[in-house]
Structures are given as structure tokens and as C-alpha cells.
Amino acid sequence: MSRNLFDRLFASGLDLARVAIRHPDGSVSAYGDLAARSGQLANALVGLGVTAGDRVAVQVEKSAEALTLYLACLRAGAIYLPLNTGYTLTELSYFIGDAEPALVVCDPAREAGVQEIAKQLATGVRTATLDSHGKGSLSAAADAQPAGFATVARGDDDLAAILYTSGTTGRSKGAMLSHDNLASNSLTLRDYWRFTADDALIHALPIYHTHGLFVATNVTFFAGGSLILMPKFDADAVIAAMPQATAMMGVPTFYTRLLQHPGLTRELTANMRLFVSGSAPLLAETHNEWRARTGHAILERYGMTETNMNTSNPYEGPRIAGTVGLPLPGVALRVVDPENGVQLANGDIGMIEVKGPNVFRGYWRMPEKTAAEFRPDGFFITGDLGRIDTNGYVQIVGRGKDLIISGGFNVYPKEVESEIDALEGVIESAVIGAPHPDFGEGVTAVVVASDKSLDEARVLKALDGRLAKFKLPKRVLFADELPRNSMGKVQKNLLRDAHKNLYV
Ligand code: AMP
């Protein structure tokens, strides 16, 4: 039997008459419509020379057609390779050179530039287009095709997608994800979060990233539920959709922005059963404010491009702010000493490592990198530092590369940030290490304050006695906002770069 993710999503029990996508204009697509359109698109891909195992790179704005193209790639046995719409042509040329796709689907405005790149690289790549309305040469080619398509059989370990990591240190790496990596994780999450055919999920996340593409889409489709598809996050649109929705998945910024909206009330969210947050840390304050305002406890989970989802707060049982919950069924998680890989006792901070059917098949054409990030017993070294508390809940303290070593002592930024964030008049903070002639790195805080009279001296005075001396910031700087990427992650590399001469 084929283990193609598409076949598993559209298994015989699925009611093809049910609504799969609710579009912004109020129209709907049933699962049967998706099956037919993905068949037309798959036929168009084959017509463009795509064969099983080929990469199809896709850099297009979010639309239902773009989402259907993902399904079409699965059906054709191709490897779907979504690219952040923010990437420039220069960045694109790295991805095209590295992945050697058979086809690049891009915005019509980009096509000439992509063809130029292809010419320079001499890779023989073809191009097709889709615009923000899902129209272009690819959709036109699909219109002329029949809906019937015999989905190519795939095994569990065959690749379904390659997603490039954001690459804040060095070149982006292509994480190879198999059909079973994606299917097994989505099925686990569907059951863990109790998704059913009655669910309608607000989908305002981008679809070039694991959160919006796999978690939100695959979980809803595996349940036979519907997506309320939005081209991007817009607080007014989300508020307007809430009474017809049952669930939302978002990054922390969705929640902080919605909290600023006067329309967010307990009554508005009465039909909702689940709010999920992930991709970046949710402040405990946001969790608490959300609960006070709506009566709902946001469920925070933790995952990454390479591993899909690893942990989740429980559906029933305490959802503890500041934690990412418990390892998901089938996922083994341990915290080890990063130096020697020896497992640490609960409570101690160390490197988080995971193993399970969710974990990727390695980095595309980087066997040494892949080998360096797996332990001999198969555990993947996530690069995240954290601890397991006495209840078994996992707490993330930050990326390993954000760890500060000052005067030989380890300083975990999260610990300092939590103290600063708790101060009156502080909205949020980011703590980084900046090169320091005496200490190696100097602990440096960048603070976003609501109280504009707050100054460095007051922050330092308030922290004195609350943190060990070596953890105290050497400098406290103020900013109007923290630099974030499209998934709401604070880009500490940019802050480190901006302040690299602070002490030298
Ligand atoms: P990405 O591969 O873009 O999904 O980024 C994955 C990284 O995001 C993880 O390795 C974590 O550092 C971070 N991350 C994801 N979810 C959370 C969370 N709930 N809390 C804190 N960090 C998170």
C-alpha cells in the first residue's frame, strides 16, 4: 500500500463533500474540489517535466491554489520545497543552486530574474508562475488538464519536502522530511489536540514554514475539518472569523496583537475550543492576560523545522505558562550535558535532544552536518537549551548559540529576560552577549519599555539582589521594538551585530 501522505490524507473514509477551505470571499472548496484541482495541478507538473523525486521550489504568496500545489507535488511524488516570500533573488540563487529543482514556481514579477539565475547556474531548471490570487502560467496549464491523476506510490522514508532552516548562523540547511515524518506527527497532534471534522481552524500563518504548512494544514485535513484561509495575519479579519471558528494556531505575536484589539472578548471566543501557540516563546504575561480576557488557556507547544512537533502542553490537564509541556506520544526527549552527551537530572539545564518518527532524514547534501547533529543512538541535537521540571514539563531557555559566557560563567538569557520582563513599565526584553575585553562576553539587555521614563540605572537597581552578580547586565539599552522575523522570533543575531562594539 502506498504511504504517500496525500493518499493517507485523502483515505477512503474522507467525506469529499465536506468543506476543506473557507476562502476570504466567503466561497468554499470541498475536499472533492481539492482532490480534483490537485489532480489538474499534478498533471500540469508532469507536463512541465517533473518526475518522482524531483524538487519543486515554490516562492509564491499564500493562496488556496498555492496550498493545493503542495498537495499536487505530493501526488506527483515530487519533493515540495517552499521558500520564504521575503527572499531576494540573490538568496534564491543559493537555494536553486543547492537544491537543483526541476521546476521553480514563482510570482510572475520574479520569473525573468529566476530564469537569469537558472541560466547562470546552467541547471536546466524550468519556471512557472502563480500570483497572490493563485493565477499564472501554472494555474493556466492546470486548467487545461484533466482532474484524474494516479497518485505516485511512495514509501514511508521517501522525501515529501525539503524546508530550509532560517540560517542565522552560516548557510541555510535543507531539512529533508519524509512522507511518514509529516504524516505520523500530524496524526499524533490530531489526536492529542482532539481535532475532528467539526473543527474550523483560523489559518493566518505563512505556508512556507512548518507551522502553517504542516502543523496547521495537515492536522486539520487529517481530521477532515476546514481551514479558514487568510492571506496573512490581520487582527480585524481574525476577530471577524472567530465566531465561526473552533481553533487557531499562531505565533506569540498573533496573541499580543489580538490582545490590543478592543473586539477580543469572552463572548467573541465562546465558540473556540483551542488556541495553540508556538515557533517562539510565549510570555507568561501574554498567557495570563489571554486567560483573563477570554477564559481560554493558550496551549503552547514546541517544535522545529527538522523535527516537526516535539512537546505540547496537555489538552486536558494543566497548561503551564512558560513551559512547552510534555513530550508527545512516540517522541523521546532528553536533556544532556552539551559537552559529553551525558543525560542530566531533571531540573538541570542542558541540550535538548529528541528521537522519534517525527525527526527528519538529515540535511540535503550535507552528510557531515547531518552526522554532527545526531548522536550515535539516533537522538537529534536540537540546539535548544532547556530543562525538565519536576512535573515532567519541558522549559526552553533559549538556543544554544544564544548562551552567554561571561567571565567563564554560563548565563542563560531567558533567566535574565524573565527578571527584566517582570519589572513595572517593561514590555519585553532580549538579553545578548557582546564581545567584552575582560569578560569575553558582556551581558547586555535590550529593553522595550512602556514607561518611557525608565532608564538604565533603575533597571540595574531593580535587578540587584535578584540575580547573581555575573548575570547582571553590564549595559541596559532601550529600543522601540525588538527585531523579529516573519515567525515572530527575536533575531538576536541582528542585535549582537548592532552592538558588537559596545565594550570594545
Ligand atoms: P523553526 O525551525 O523555524 O520552526 O524554529 C525552531 C525553533 O524555534 C526551535 O528550535 C526553538 O528554538 C524555537 N521554538 C519553537 N517553539 C518554541 C516555543 N514554544 N518556545 C520557545 N521556543 C520555541
Bound molecules: adenosine monophosphate
Largest sheet: 9 strands, mixed
Span between termini: 63 Å
Average pLDDT level:
96
Low-confidence stretches: none
The fraction of residues in strands falls at 15-25%
Shape: globular
Strand order of the largest sheet: 2-1-10-9-11-12-13-14-15
Number of helices: 15
Q: Give me the Rg, rounded.
A: 23 Å
Which structural class best describes the helix and strand composition? alpha/beta
Oligomer: single chain
Q: Helical content, roughly?
A: 25-40%
- Strand segment tally: 24
Protein name: Malonyl-CoA synthase
Domain AMP-binding enzyme C-terminal: 415-489
InterPro entries: AMP-bd_C, AMP-bd_C_sf, AMP-binding_CS, AMP-dep_synth/lig_dom, ANL_N_sf
Domain AMP-dependent synthetase/ligase: 26-364
Structure notes:
Residues 26-364 form the AMP-dependent synthetase/ligase domain. Residues 415-489 form the AMP-binding enzyme C-terminal domain. Belongs to the ATP-dependent AMP-binding enzyme family. It comes from Camelimonas fluminis. InterPro entries: AMP-bd_C, AMP-bd_C_sf, AMP-binding_CS, AMP-dep_synth/lig_dom, ANL_N_sf. The chain is an alpha/beta fold and 504 residues long. The chain is built from 15 helices and 24 strands. A nine-stranded mixed beta sheet has the order 2-1-10-9-11-12-13-14-15. A four-stranded parallel beta sheet has the order 4-3-5-6, sandwiched between helices. Strands 16-17-18-19 form a four-stranded antiparallel beta sheet. The chain starts with a helix and ends in a 6-residue tail after the last helix. The mean pLDDT is 96. Bound molecules: adenosine monophosphate. Adenosine monophosphate binds at residues 165-166, 210, 278-281, 300, 302-305, 324, 382, 384, 396, 399, 487.
